[in-house]
Amino acid sequence: MTERHDAVFDLLIVGGGINGVGIARDAAGRGLNVALCEKDDLSSGTSWASSKLIHGGLRYLEHYEFRLVRESLAEREVLLHIAPHLVHPLRFILPHVSELRPAWTIRAGLLLYDHLSRRVSLPGSTWLNLNKSPFGAGLKPELRTGFSYFDCQVDDARLVIANARAAAALGAKIMVRTECLGARTVDGIWQADLEDRNTGTRTTVKARALINVAGPWVAQVRDSITGSGVGRPVRLIKGSHIVVPRVHDGEYAFILQNDDGRVIFVIPFEGQYSLIGTTEVEVEGVPENLTISEQEIHYLCRAVARYLRRPPSERDVVWSFAGLRPLFGEDGGSLSEITRDYELNVDLVAGAAPVLTVYGGKLTTYRCLAEQVLARLKPHLPHMKAPWTQRVTLPGGDVAGGDLGGLVQRLVQERNGLPHELLTALVHRHGTLAAEVLGNAQEVQALGIHFGADLYGCEVDYLIEHEWARSADDVLWRHTKTGLRLSKAQHAQVADYLARRFQLALARTTNQ
User: Fold this and answer.
1) What residues does 383 pair with on adjacent strands?
2) Of 255, 257, 279, which Cα lies nearest the Cα of 101?
3) Structural contact between residues 221 and 234, judged by C-beta atoms closer than 8 angstroms
4) Which of 36-45, 54-63, 378-387, 434-443 has the weakest average pLDDT?
5) Which helix (H) or strand (E) holds 282?
6) Fewer CB within 10 Å, N side or C side of the chain?
7) Average predicted confidence (pLDDT) for the chain
8) How far is Cα 210 from Cα 438, in angstroms, rounded to an integer?
9) Cβ-based neighbours of 499, under 8 Å, separated by 6 or more
10) Contact call for residues 1 and 193 (beta carbons, < 8 A)
11) For 114-132, how does the pLDDT look when each residue is reduced to its tens digit (9 = 90+)?
12) According to the model, what pLDDT value does residue 229 have?
């Protein structure tokens, strides 16, 4: 069954990762009529499988990518202010190993990192005596010298969801589990064939301009649109992470030099865990089920064992995930040397209908990427308004002074019948929207079914109704990270709850 819509959108965006939803939010706020389709859940590709950092990219300085680092550091400051519930300052400790990099080069790099962008919210870098500093407590005693600097930690998937919600509130049409099968131009207008992957229903959507921001699938979507197979070469680099029980006390991270010239992060994660990553493995094509390999687990455990007092073993891994970075560049050369910058290509199909393809990019720079995308399309959509996203908070981010602790305390006073741990978790996931998630609940009994940890029925219902969640994986690993603390039986209970919710919804629709 194929449906047709006569309305013509200004933009159709293909891809619901961070760049896609960032463009949708910006464009909708400029008065454009926007549609976005994503073949799976929002952020289900590359965007949720990151190292969960908003950072300038200290190691990019070795490859002279000064513009990218400067832009990233400026965006770090912006995101701290527009999403304080999702983006948090994080201290990094870099222990020095003399045979890997000279101390003076690290110090010079950190000084450059400090001064490439105006610092407002974060302290500068410092030298440390690790044997005397509390920040050396998790490291082996023979590591005597180190450095401290700041970047930020982020809930990557929730940053995607916040941007999608903002776009929808401004009128954008967000279509999840909706695949773009191809597109053609008719009289200078794009006609895209979309398929709902749940129902099989096909829809034809019209748009004046099309944006391909499909991440690892960018070349596949490009070829289905232009039919030419011509464009930037895309290299798919798998990056994997492991999660283990906490390997050090303290709310700071380690950045560890490896003997292959790369760096490995050890980051506090979800309270009682450490997140360790990442790897770099080139793959051909997008695998159906992307998972970490035994070799990658061994690589990460070996890399951190050189430094940590309590290094994890491969048996300690409680969760792992892998994502694909779609980088542009020719074959050959070191994977670490491939730029993490982005490139925008605009083509006019049949001489009139613009399609803009986004190659590369990183989580930190999504907002300014969106501004540049729309600047490139301005000649084709002259009625769009001026940029606006730099100072406007994302949904849930209007936290007075960025004080999450104060917000939690206010909720505790207002809802003293609810557990403090639950209110803290909801504030860190939803910011000021935590009260909306709770509804009128004043007692635990009013929260609905308790699945375990800090996940209750009222939040699952909220994720379904307001955040496009459809599966247990959506709820447990992207919209929340409660999957880490729930048993297999509790996972199955969440899956059964969602299945029953959608069966009831389908029955109501059928009866109408």
Assistant:
1) none
2) 257
3) no
4) 54-63
5) strand 281-283
6) C
7) 92
8) 38
9) none
10) no
11) 999 888 899 999 999 999 9
12) 55
pLDDT in tens, 45-80: 999 999 999 999 888 888 788 999 999 999 999 999
505-to-197, 490, 501 alpha-carbon distances in Å: 17, 23, 6
**235 CA to centre of own chain:** 20
- Contact in structure between 467 and 436 (CB atoms under 8 Å): no
Per-residue pLDDT at 346: 92
Query: Using alpha carbons only, how large is the chain's radius of gyration in Å?
Result: 23
Distance between CA 29 and CA 165 in Å, rounded?
A: 12
Phi (first) and psi of residue 413, to 5 degrees? -70, -40
Q: Which of 83, 75, 53 is nearest to 165 (CA)?
A: 83
H-helix or E-strand spanning residue 358: strand 353-360
**Beta 145-154 vs 87-95: how paired, if at all?**
antiparallel
Name, in order, each residue with C-beta under 8 angstroms of 271's C-beta and a sequence gap of 6 or more.
none
**DSSP-assigned beta bridge partners for residue 324:** 238
**Which of the pair, 79 or 326, is modelled with greater confidence?**
79
First to last CA, the chain: 19
Nearest-angstrom CA–CA distance, 429 and 478: 11
Task: Give the pairing type, strands 234-245 and 273-277.
Answer: antiparallel
CA 56, CA 190: separation in Å to the nearest integer? Answer: 37
> What does 377-434 look like in DSSP terms, one character per residue?
HTTT-TT-----TTSSPPTT---GGG-HHHHHHHHHHHTTTS-HHHHHHHHHHHGGGH
Torsion angle, CA of 225/215/385/155, rounded to 10 degrees?
Answer: 160
Which residue do the tokens 């870098």 mark?
125
pLDDT value at 333 more than 70: no
What's the confidence (pLDDT) of residue 1? 44
Question: What is the C-alpha separation between 434 and 427, in angstroms, rounded?
Answer: 5
The contacts of residue 47 (CB under 8 Å, 6+ apart) are 17, 18, 156, 157, 160, 215, 363
